[in-house]
Amino acid sequence: MKNLLIIILSLLLFSSSNAEILKTKDPKALCSNGKQATFNFYENKSNNWLIYFQGGGVAANADMYKGRSKEMKSPASSDKRGYDFMVQDFFENGFNVIYVSYCSNDLYQGMHINKIDGVDVYFHGRYIVDDIFKQYDDKFLKADKLVFAGHSAGSLALGFNVDLISKYENPYLIPDSFWLDAESLRVRQGLKGGLWDGIEKFLYNNRFDHCKNSHWANCFPSKPLFDQHKIKNIFFIWNIGDPYIKGDLEMVRQSIKKDSDYYNAGFSVNAEQKKMKAFENWGHVMTANDLYFKDFDGITLQKLIWNWINGSGQTSYINN
């Protein structure tokens, strides 16, 4: 406990002056309120990079959008976005970090405009991601270690933008708290008609080429999607008790184990049983809070991830 408090304190003392708030350049790279999107850049003198996507839910219809906070519709104006625990940890370990603030409400995949109460609302997440990748393309191409991560909606960004990620050699991906194991994927593929047709029109109205003609669930982070794009370095976090897990739980457990064996990486516990409270419900999101440092039978998520990146030691913990 003492060591955990020391670690957390050191991260909380991280100076805000380390963060540079930069603007996107593409005129289409807009937050939902029509203002130019921003992102945080934490610079280190190394050739290692972490690109981290902030989470924060989704606006699947007009009422959901109107109920979301002003912050989630606007560009970041300070570095208070970007204070996630894994982000600071990677910076302290010498990585350059790009923290993408979530302001498009569309899981980072939209390229369309919704009219809400007579006002244009921009679902331009894809334009934001594409702009940032173009700004740093030369750096990503030459990186020694290139890690893409995100929590919740930010995890989904890794699936919807996998075509951009896959152009780089040997990228590492950390989808935190949105991973479609085989059972979770099967259930979502059956979500069609009625309500779901409305969501598809509002949220997924103009998907990019790699998932345009497919069910939207096939664009979520999953083994089939990443196999299709030849990405093998995956460390997923997917806890039993997470409210977004669907289907038969025993089959979910079995498919999580298969995925972990396939990647020789991953993390899953029965977070509900352990009363492991995080965002929204049991065990949802671990890289953005102090669960990142929590001890599980002598190992932490932080240690597992660094072992995985460095290629030595224990790289998975499945106890769900």
pLDDT under 50 segments (min length 5)? 13-17
Largest sheet: 7 strands, mixed
Structure classification: alpha/beta
* Architecture (CATH level 2) name: 3-Layer(aba) Sandwich
The overall number of domains is 1
Written account of the structure:
With 320 residues, this protein is of the alpha/beta class. It has a single domain (2-319), classed as Rossmann fold, CATH 3.40.50. Helix content is 31%, strand content 18%. The strands form four sheets. A seven-stranded mixed sheet has the order 1-2-4-3-7-8-9. A hairpin with a 2-residue loop joins strand 5 and strand 6 (119-123).
Strand-helix topology:
Elements (H helix, E strand, L loop, with lengths): L1 H11 L6 E5 L14 E5 L5 E6 L8 H5 L18 H8 L3 E5 L11 E5 L2 E5 L1 H11 L1 H5 L3 E7 L1 H8 L1 H4 L6 E5 L5 H8 L5 H9 L19 H6 L4 E2 L14 H15 L2 E4 L25 E2 L2 E2 H10 L5 E4 L1
Parallel strand pairs: 3-4, 3-7, 7-8, 8-9, 10-13
Antiparallel strand pairs: 1-2, 2-4, 5-6, 11-12
